[in-house]
Amino acid sequence: MDSIPIGSRFLQPNRQLLVNGERISIGPRALSIISVLAQADGEVVTKDELLETVWPGITVEENALQVHIAAIRKALGQDADRLHTLRGVGYQLEIGQPDLPSPDLPSETQSLSFPSATVLTPESGGPAETVKDGRKPALRRVWMAIALLVIATVLLGWMLQRDPGSASSDLRVAVLVRPFSADNQGSASADAMASGITDELIVRLRHESQLLVGTDDPSQQITEGPFADAYLVDGNVRTNGELLRVTVRLYDPHGAIVWTESFDRELSGLFEMQELIAARIGNSLRVALDVGHESSAYGGTDNPEAYAAYLQAMAHQLDPDQSVPERYLERAIELDAGYVKALAVLSISYGLRSNFAPTGQEAKAEVERMDAATHQAIEANPDLWIGYAARGLYHANARQPDLYDSNMRKVIAFDRGADPDLVGSIASWQLNTGRLAGARASLDRLALIDPQRTQSGINMWQALLEADYDDVIARFHRWIARDEDFAGSDVRWVFWAYLAKGDEAQARSLAAQYNLDTKAWDTYLASPEIRIMSQTELTQWVDRELGHDAFADVVNLATFAGHYGEPELAARLLRMAIEKRPVGGYPLIVMWWPSMAEMRRTEEFKRIARDTGLVAAWRESDDWPDACHPFPNGDFECE
């Protein structure tokens, strides 16, 4: 059967749901479920049958099924009453078209059973009804999805209700979201909860076309631009065993509290209640609020346990031992094989480890893991940019610069100017490949989308590559003044800024404070004889001093040779690192650092650029690094 009518909708099983010829947004699992129900031709399909069909070989809690049933009801709209719930048994879908045309009005939401909870209405701000079901919580981590959806639906309802006509207006309401705080002081898990709820809230709000959403930093006042008169959201999170309390406040542009609410929730069976809240707010405002549980539509997960594991990984992302966050990410993917964000972050972690692995064999294995994870991310959802960005980084570490570029151009095709993470990913690629003018333009756009992103490490990286060392150091001190954690990967920009300014004492102090590895620096300073060694002698010396399998240390040694005015030695060391291992993108990134400027003028660098496929990629795309220029005769020069 090519097309199955469901009231005014038409389902093409496992392909798409249509109304008036237009495709309705529905997640892949929800589409699988409605396809199974429709193909049952009006017969009851049990919950076990649905779980076994849609999640074959995977143990999934019943809450996951409820999430998608709620999404299906939302997608069916006025035809939602065709989907029947048989308590304790399963679901039944009436197919076929109505005998009489039905008015285009929102349908009544079906009666649902929930654990003890209070539903709020936007009109009153108070309790509308209380419904009970004596079931105990089944998942300890459900609180994250619950809190997120309560906050998103109520917040959107209040702001859009303030002007019902804004639903059809081109003007967007500016909102800044301040990071939520954890009341459970000193708990890494509680901090991860609060951070995760904040991040997911921002992502969901950004999917609302009527809102312009940015992040807020209390220490930085925005006085101009679209966020100068923005509403502000903040809140705090407390957990106690199986209970969660989230308190949220909404301030108007003048700082007055216009709405505040505390939500006390049990941890199970609340997914459909959040959909009910969203549906009632949407009906009352005559707008469709896309705040449901279809997190997979933007690379997230509908599995609360998978999300909890992802949050724990983020809480440990700065750990020196990257095996800790990797274990959490692998657990998240085990629970949800289509968790695109987790796959992308895991692949990046594999890439970092490939560059600092102790042996070439281990480095190759990490890149192979990158390959598998990025393939899986794209297969899970080819309509998301995240998988292509991760795939691009895989090709960077596999030393396939042409494929790195082509995947990032796929990312650019997704750019609609509203997603700061996407624009930040483009800027990182441009910085990685020496395209500084493009990176500058991308970061300028990023600042317009979310002004607080100008305080991130990527801006320090840009400033360093443009040799604006004072700006790097000033950004660092502002960061420290905010008393925030500072990533080791960002500290190195400050280290090089001090070194470039000739302040070796401050660079040494910073390295000691942040536990930066100075082995290559110390080795270079202690070994002036390497400057006059032949290539054979240099190779023997590196094997003896740094180890036969040394890679990252050799790349670092090249950067210090460049800094101390030995460009030929820097190029020879860079060549040595590349020949030692066929994988690892680190050498192709450091070549654009300011300390390597003289090295880029050497003939050896030109040979490296040709041998690694860089020149072929530049010619194919006609997109050259800022420091390099082609000649009509086929040659090129860099500076």
Task: Describe this structure as you would to a colleague.
It contains 25 helices and 17 strands. With 639 residues, it is α+β, with helices and mostly antiparallel strands. The strands form 5 sheets. Strands 10, 11, 12, 13, 14 and 15 form a 6-stranded mixed β-sheet that branches. Strands 1-2-3-4 form a 4-stranded antiparallel β-sheet, covered by helices on one side. Strands 5-7-6 form a 3-stranded antiparallel β-sheet.
Which keywords apply here?
12% strand; globular; 25 helices; alpha+beta
Please specify the SSE layout and strand pairing.
Blueprint: E1 4-6, E2 9-12, E3 16-19, E4 22-23, H1 28-39, E5 45-46, H2 47-54, H3 62-76, E6 83-86, E7 90-93, E8 117-120, E9 127-131, H4 143-161, E10 173-177, E11 181-182, H5 188-206, E12 211-215, E13 231-240, E14 243-251, E15 257-265, H6 271-285, H7 304-315, H8 323-335, H9 340-356, H10 360-380, H11 385-397, H12 401-413, H13 420-432, H14 436-449, H15 457-465, H16 469-481, H17 488-500, H18 504-513, H19 519-525, H20 535-545, H21 552-563, H22 567-580, H23 586-590, H24 603-611, H25 614-621, E16 628-630, E17 636-638
Parallel strand pairs: 10-12, 10-13, 11-13
Antiparallel strand pairs: 1-2, 2-3, 3-4, 5-7, 6-7, 8-9, 13-14, 14-15, 16-17
